[in-house]
Amino acid sequence: MRKNRVVLVAAAAGIAMALTACSSSVQTGGGGQSSGEKLLGIVSITANEAGNAAFIASATKAAEQAGWKVEVVDAQGDAAKGNAAMKEFVTKGAGMIMDLTFPPTSLGAGIAAAKQAHIPVGSWTGGTGDGIVMNTGNGGPVATIVTEALVRDLGGKGEVLALTYRGGQACIDREKGFDAVMAQSPNIKVTKMEVTIPGFLTDGAKDATAYLAARPAGSGPLAIWGCWDDPTLGAISALKQLGRTDVKTYGIVGSVTAIAAVKDGSMTATVAENVAVEATTTFQTMQQAIAAGASWTPKTIDVPAQLIDSTTIDGYLASHPGILK
């Protein structure tokens, strides 16, 4: 079984400076820490998406087992709602706040309010920045894995539709990773269409239908790439409606639905991450940040990832029994 370990290390000078800048923001938690039940506030860019939902479920489980109360706000892709939610959690005296995929620059007002109240903020795929005590990342390097598979599968020639989304840092980073690989593949023509949140499944289907209207079966090697699984799954629904079996399809995250699609052959490949481990690690790391106080050094957590395709799916299912039940 092919395995890849993606290590996102904050080694560049610019990132190191950002980490240093936010190290002084961590104190012993807000008002929710000082009395009564501690509150974990989660701000999700889209709580109904499979990866976000899995992260929320695992983070909630870890927090509740540790005696914390959890509240979740679905910002539905709207940074203004995300900022408002963070400020509300500050007002409630949350002990910690988690940002799911919004770039810190989009939540600047909310993060600043949390920093002033000495409430640590952790990020899942959103990236580092002033006021962020830790980040679990799955951006460009993860996208590289599946995009390199796409190039191999197309034989280095053909056309690909890339379904992007620029409102979340994970997709911004994944698009950069995709672009870097495609820059080395000049014989593959790239067309990009951006999906929305909410509406990514519908957009994936609509964009695929429009794209393929001018590319009938037999017109050449074709592929569809999504910056996460769901836009690609939307595209796959369109492929089924159109009766097209000539288009290869690629996603990122490794949701249960995507894994099932790889198993039945409707999705060519995805990159599977252990989101449950990421969520638990995020909560535990933020607890460590609270305990360390001002001495805490912000961290970026390694993210294990594995390409799941027709050659690895059986081994993956054997090592994850019951995942499709």
List its salient traits.
Rossmann fold; disordered N terminus; 13 strands; 325 residues; four-stranded parallel β-sheet; alpha/beta; elongated; 12 helices; six-stranded parallel β-sheet; 2 domains
The radius of gyration over CA amounts to: 20 Å
- Please count the beta strands (DSSP E, at least 2 residues each): 13
Across the major sheet, the strand order is: 3-2-4-5-6-12
CATH top level class name of the largest domain? Alpha Beta
Per CATH, which architecture of the largest domain? 3-Layer(aba) Sandwich
* Helix-strand category: alpha/beta
CATH topology of the largest domain: Rossmann fold
If you average the pLDDT, what whole number results?
89
Give the total of domains.
2
Nutshell version of this structure?
The protein has 325 residues and is an alpha/beta fold. The model is unreliable at 1-35 (pLDDT under 50). The chain has helices spanning 13-22, 31-34, 50-65, 79-91, 108-116, 140-154, 169-182, 200-213, 229-242, 256-264, 275-292, 313-319, and strands at 4-6, 38-44, 68-74, 96-100, 121-124, 132-136, 158-164, 188-194, 222-226, 247-250, 270-273, 299-301, 303-308.
Structure write-up:
It is a single chain. With 325 residues, this protein is of the alpha/beta class. It folds into two domains: 8-136 and 275-301, Rossmann fold (3-Layer(aba) Sandwich), CATH 3.40.50; 140-252, Rossmann fold (3-Layer(aba) Sandwich), CATH 3.40.50. The protein is 44% helix and 21% strand. The protein contains twelve helices and 13 strands. The strands form three sheets. The protein has a six-stranded parallel sheet with strand order 3-2-4-5-6-12, sandwiched between helices. Helix 5 links the parallel strand 4 (96-100) and strand 5. Helix 3 (50-65) crosses helix 11, helix 6 (140-154) packs parallel to helix 7 (169-182) and helix 8 (200-213) packs across helix 9. The longest helix has 18 residues, at 275-292. It is elongated, with a radius of gyration of 20 Å. The model is unreliable at 1-35 (pLDDT under 50).
